[in-house]
Amino acid sequence: MSMRRLMAAVAAGAFLSIGGAQASALAGGAFDPRDYHQEVAGERTEVLVLATPHLSMTPAEFDPAALEGLLQRLQSFHPDVIAIENLSGESLSALSAYQAVYPGVAKGFGSSALTLAAAARAHTDLDLPAAEAEARAALSALGAEPTAARRRRMAMLFLASGDPNSALVQWWRLSPSERVADDFPQTIGAQLEAFAARKNESALIGARLAARLGLERLHPMDDQSGLDLIFPIAEVLGAAIGADPGIAEGLARPDFARLAQSGDRLRDAAEALDTYLEINAPGAGLVDARAQWLIMIDRAYPQDAGRVRMGEWEARNLRMAANIREAAATAPGGRVLVIVGASHKPWLDAYLDMMTDIRIVDARQVLRQGRAELPGAAAARKD
Predict the structure, then answer these.
(1) Which residues contact 180 (CB under 8 A, 6 or more apart)?
(2) Residue 67 CB partners (closer than 8 Å, separation 6+)
(3) pLDDT tens track for 141-174
(4) Among 62, 90, 165, 331, who pairs with 80 as Cys (CB 3.0-4.6 Å)?
C-alpha cells in the first residue's frame, strides 16, 4: 500500500470511529485538546520542563560538582526521554542548505556540532543526512548489552549526524579503557572530550543524567527557523528597545534582575538546588515573560518590530513544543525531562499542557525530595 493510501485509510478510520462522547462534543462547544486528558488509554505521558540558567554564562569559578544534588533529584524522576535545547542535525542541515535565507545561523547555533560532524565525516564518509539514517538504524539494532565496539560506532554516528550530546551519552557509557581503540581516532576522541568540558547544561545535566540512567541518546529540540523574520527588523528593533525607558525599567526590576543573575548562585549543591527551585516556580516564569516578551506587544514600534519579535519567539517555542511532543511519542505513558533556558519554561508548560496525552509535572515537587540530605542544606535559604 502506498503511503498516500495508508494515510487516507487512517484518516477514514479515525472519522468512522467517532462516537459517544466525541460525537456529542462535535455537536457542542469548541474543540479543546485538554478536554480529552481523561480519555487516554493508560497513563498520560509525564513531562517535566526544567528551567535552567545557561551554564555558559556562569562565573569562571563555577564547579559542575555543584549540580550533583540536582542530578540526584532528576535521577529520581527517572525520565525515559531527555530533550535538550540544541538544534538537531536535520535542522543544521536545512539551515546550511538555506544559507542565503539564514546567513550564519547554522554556524552561529551549531558551530561545535558541525565541527565534530566534519571530523566524523572524514572517518565515516557520511554526511549529516546519511549519518542520521545510519544512526537510527544502528540505534534500533543496538540491543540491551552492546559491545564496546558498537557503542564507539554509535558515538561516531551521532557525531557525524550533528548530535554530539548523544555521542557523549555513548562515550560516557564506555569505561575509559574502552574509549581507546583503532575504530575511534584519538583526535576525534580528544575533540569530544573538549566538547564535554564546556560549561553547557545539555552535557553537564542532560548527557550526564542519560548516561547514569542507561539511556542511549538525547533529543535535540531547539529551532531557529523563524530568524528570517528578525533579520529585516533587527536594526529598528534594537534602536526602539534602546530608546524605550519602559524596557529598561522592566529589566532593572529586582525580581527580574535576580532571575537574570541565577547563574551566579550555583556555588554548592544546596545553593544550586535552591536556585533551581526558585527559577522553576510559576511566578518566576511570569516575571520573565512580562519583563522580556509580553512587553513587546503593546509598543507601537516602527515596522511593528515588537510584535514581529514576539511572533518569532512564540513560533520558536511552538516548534520546540512540537519537537518535544514528537520525542514524547516514543515513550507513551512514560516520563520526559526537558532541559531548557528559563525564559522558555512558561511557554512550553502552557503549550505542552494542551496536548491530549501529556501531564505537566511540577519541577519543584521533584527537586524538593531529599533536600535536607544535601551538603550545606541547613544553611540554605528557604524557598
Answers:
(1) 186, 189
(2) 204, 205, 266, 269, 272
(3) 999 999 999 999 999 999 999 999 999 999 999 9
(4) 331
